[in-house]
């Protein structure tokens, strides 16, 4: 039995859908089980069991792990991430789970520090010391996160950042989920660390140009100083300090450490990753 922690998250939800397509049994965990059951009804997911569970409630997790052999571990970033994921890994080992697929982040680099990457580094160390077979997925920027730019594109025809002209790796979360499914269903793919990107890199000015063509109106990227962007994210985006810091840090990392795509998705799945052009076309109505 595969347990999916984070089944209503962007990657976890796509993984549930993929396992439905593959007709693979799994137990999907959620704090909103009815929402997930409704989706499964639409997808015809008769092989998926839904269980109410909360990573912060250890007893609910112990019940969820009963009889499981594999765990997909994806949690929203938060200041409690190291504490919660460490507890889950130890609990999974106690429950007899033999393989964990963990969503991590690009490797921590002290020359361009990203605090959240440091959290994942600590969790990966616990995972390595657990003795469990583990597969670590290190995806770069999610294409889905570009949807957060939509409000200012709609209202002002602009979006903001602090990346300048730097190119950034993007990946569709559905490709991350497909790689996770491969690791969970193909023993040969398990037990490795995978850095995941799309096939191309793009700068924010290039994304502005793509949106301009799709929308038939000018869209501009406005570059800001990191501290100014941090203030705006907190004041207008209502982000807590740690999350505003994270957004600024990952954009600053793209400037400090030039990014280039990997061929991991293609080599594992036998197909090219989804493209940014296709993603923007699919979601263009959000930006109108």
Automatic annotation (TrEMBL):
GO terms for molecular function: NAD(P)H dehydrogenase (quinone) activity. Its EC number is 1.6.5.2. Keywords: Oxidoreductase. It is an enzyme of class 1 (oxidoreductase). The keyword Signal does not apply. It holds the Pfam family NmrA. Residues 2-245 form the NmrA-like domain. It comes from the Bacteria. This is SDR family oxidoreductase. It comes from Paenibacillus oleatilyticus. The lineage of its organism: Bacteria, Bacillati, Bacillota, Bacilli, Bacillales.
């Amino acid at each position: 039995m595969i347990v999916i922690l984070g089944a209503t998250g962007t990657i976890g939800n796509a993984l549930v859908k993929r396992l439905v397509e593959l007709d693979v049994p799994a137990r999907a965990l959620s704090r909103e089980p009815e929402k997930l059951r409704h989706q499964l009804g639409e997808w015809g997911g008769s092989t998926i069991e839904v269980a109410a569970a909360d990573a912060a409630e250890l007893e609910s997790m112990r019940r969820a792990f009963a009889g499981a052999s594999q765990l997909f571990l994806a949690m929203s970033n938060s200041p409690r991430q190291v504490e919660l994921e460490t507890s889950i890994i130890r609990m999974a080992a106690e429950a007899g789970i033999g393989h964990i697929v963990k969503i991590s982040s690009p490797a921590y680099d002290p020359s361009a520090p990203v605090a959240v990457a440091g959290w994942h580094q600590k969790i990966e160390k616990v995972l390595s010391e657990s003795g469990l077979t583990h597969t670590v997925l290190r995806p770069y920027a999610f294409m889905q996160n570009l949807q957060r730019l939509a409000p200012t594109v709609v209202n002002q025809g602009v979006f903001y950042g602090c990346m300048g002209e730097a190119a950034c790796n993007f990946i569709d979360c559905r490709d991350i989920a497909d790689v996770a499914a491969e690791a969970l269903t193909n023993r040969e793919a398990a037990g490795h660390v995978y850095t995941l990107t799309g096939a191309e890199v793009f700068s924010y000015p290039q994304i502005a140009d793509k949106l301009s063509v799709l929308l038939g109106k000018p869209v501009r990227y406005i570059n800001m100083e990191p501290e100014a962007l941090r203030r705006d994210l907190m004041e207008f985006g209502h982000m807590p300090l740690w999350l505003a810091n994270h957004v600024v840090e990952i954009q600053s990392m793209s400037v400090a450490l030039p990014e280039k795509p990997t061929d991991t998705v293609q080599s594992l799945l036998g197909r090219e990753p989804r493209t940014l052009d296709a993603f923007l076309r699919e979601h263009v109505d959000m930006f109108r």
